[in-house]
Amino acid sequence: GYQSVGVAATAKHFPGHGDTAVDSHFGFPVITHSRELWSSLDAVPFRAAVRAGIDSVMTAHIMVPALDPSGDPATLSHPILTGILREELGYDGLVVTDSLGMEGVRTKYGDDRVPVLALKAGVDQLLNPPSIHVAWNAVLNAVHGGELTEARLDESVLRVLRLKSKLGLLENPYVSDSGVDHTVGTAAHRRAADRIAERTTTLLVNQERLLPLSR
Predict the structure, then answer these.
(1) Can you give the pTM of this predicted structure?
(2) Which of 15, 50, 103, 155 is the most buried (most CB within 10 A)?
(3) How many helices (H) and strands (E) does the chain have?
């Protein structure tokens, strides 16, 4: 897989974004699954990914009241990211947010609060905050004000450095893209993509028995 050739794979979007009617780029989805349904449905692939040693997990800008009744998106939820992902599932790898420019995470809090709340919840890496300047100063002020501890940030720094070390990025931080056309999108890759699509496509409706095709 990806990680066997030095690519950090990411499982997303925790705790499960599959059953939403709202696009979190433009709104704030709510998942109404019970804790039991979540455990038997949404959690299954994440448990498998953690067992397989996934390098990174991306958060979802969704509300799951059964997991955290506060009304906060999972990206900002300590019960979900620390209580469930870290403690219950036993994951100690990198946790990265989905884009912080998306509406799903900006509905309830401003851009100066989201980075701080995400780090407090257990996030290690903030993806694409709308303003780096605002995010930087918000985190700095939270540390100076005692809301965020340096020890908490050190945990995240260690995870980032640990992953970089695993990927060899501390010794060789630059990757050439000169050979990308020869290593990505090859005929073998396209065959693998076709195989995956074929095996994961599910027929739900077959009106007038159109399928299977005769040729």
Answers:
(1) 0.87
(2) 15
(3) 9, 3
Tell me whether residue 25 is one of the annotated catalytic residues.
Answer: yes
Q: Which CATH superfamily is domain 2-174 in?
A: Glycoside hydrolase, family 3, N-terminal domain (3.20.20.300)
Catalytic residue among 25, 92, 189, 194: 25
DSSP, residue by residue, 146-197 = TSS-HHHHHHHHHHHHHHHHHTTTTT------TTHHHHSS-HHHHHHHHHHH
- Domain-wise residue ranges, the chain: 2-174
- The model's pLDDT over 10-42, given as tens digits with 9 standing for 90+, comes to 999 999 998 999 999 999 999 999 999 999 999
95: part of which helix (H) or strand (E)?
strand 94-96
Catalytic residue from among 55, 72, 98, 124: 98
